[in-house]
Specification:
145 residues; 2 helices; single chain
Length: 145
């Protein structure tokens, strides 16, 4: 029997203890229950199976650690990338907000300047109308007379 195959078959000794059925004496030494090759093969099979189990459990532990590290790294980088994207987006939104605020301020200043110019034009027109109006009224009166 060799290696792994020894595990699949029950261990059966090749010989049993030879004892005389009629009064055994102390001078007779019982023979070994297992032969040396059987004992060696059985221990080898147990050792081989234990080593294989250790290797499998070690591989499972290593795969678990690798998976944990891989998942941690991937989630860390995904979080980092998302943080960078959000930060960039916030910077872009802030830039556009400031641009719009400056534009609104410029438009307000232009509206105020236009309103001031309009009021000034209206005052000029009013000043121009006053003398013209009086002149025209005076001329009409003169023409009627």
């Amino acid at each position: 029997m060799s290696g792994f195959n020894a595990l699949s078959k029950p261990l059966k000794p090749r010989s049993e203890v030879a004892v005389h059925t009629i009064h055994p004496t102390l001078e007779q030494k019982p023979r070994a229950k297992y032969n040396v090759p059987d004992w060696f093969n059985h221990n080898y099979a147990i050792s081989f199976d234990a080593e294989r189990s250790r290797n499998v459990s070690h591989q499972v532990r290593q795969d678990g650690r690798r998976l944990i590290n891989e998942t941690y790294n991937e989630s860390w980088w995904n979080k980092h990338d998302n943080d960078v994207r959000i930060s960039d987006r916030l910077d872009e939104v802030d830039k556009w907000r400031k641009t719009l605020e400056y534009t609104i301020q410029d438009v307000d200043r232009e509206v105020q300047a236009i309103q001031a110019a309009k009021e000034q034009c209206e005052r000029y027109l009013e000043h121009m109308r006053s003398p013209l109006g009086k002149l025209l009224t005076n001329r009409k009166k003169q023409n009627k007379n």
